[in-house]
Every structure is written in structure tokens, then in C-alpha cells.
Design a protein that fits this description.
With 99 residues, this protein is an all-alpha fold. It has 5 helices and no strands. The N and C termini lie far apart (36 Å).
Length: 99
């Protein structure tokens, strides 16, 4: 029951983040996403949102660092690299495209 509640709570956070991103409220989201990614390092959507938010704040280097850290975590814990979504996001950030 507690695990299901935790997942539901995370889903609500992600919906809040997505809505804030759509409204252009990047700076408040950056702090919230930093906290969430520390609390849930295994979750792949959080670093994607965090990197996109940092990029939208004009912090491309920070966004790339988030993705590099996600790749290191995924490799160390799961033996996997970045997902296609995260690779595409990294490419978009490197090309200075819209996130």
C-alpha cells in the first residue's frame, strides 16, 4: 500500500512539473526537480524534466551534467546507458534546440 501511495504521489509531482513547465515557471521547478531526483535517483523521467528545465533556464551545462549523472547512475546500477528519450534530449540540448 505504501509503495502504491509513493508512486501515486510521484505521478502527482510529475503532473505538477509538466504543468509548471508548460506555464514557463522554470526556476521554481528547477529546485523541486533537484529534490525529487535526489529522492528518486532510479526514475528516468525526473532527470529528463530536470535537464529540460535547466536548459529552459539558460543553464545548458547544468542540463548536460544532469544527463551525464543519469547515465552514470543507470550504468552503475542497471548496466544500461541512457534511454532513447534521454539521448534525444541530450542531442537537442547540444544543438541548442527547443526542449
Amino acid at each position: 500500500m505504501a509503495a502504491a501511495f509513493g508512486e501515486l504521489r510521484l505521478t502527482v509531482h510529475l503532473l505538477h512539473v509538466a504543468a509548471g513547465f508548460d506555464l514557463g515557471k522554470y526556476w521554481p521547478l528547477a529546485a523541486e526537480l533537484a529534490r525529487l531526483t535526489v529522492a528518486r535517483p532510479e526514475h528516468e523521467t525526473l532527470p529528463a524534466f530536470r535537464a529540460a528545465t535547466l536548459c529552459a533556464c539558460g543553464r545548458r551545462a547544468g542540463a548536460l551534467h544532469v544527463l551525464a549523472s543519469a547515465r552514470a547512475r543507470m550504468t552503475a546500477h542497471l548496466g544500461l546507458g541512457l534511454t532513447r528519450e534521454l539521448k534525444d534530449l541530450r542531442t537537442t540540448i547540444l544543438r541548442d534546440g527547443p526542449v
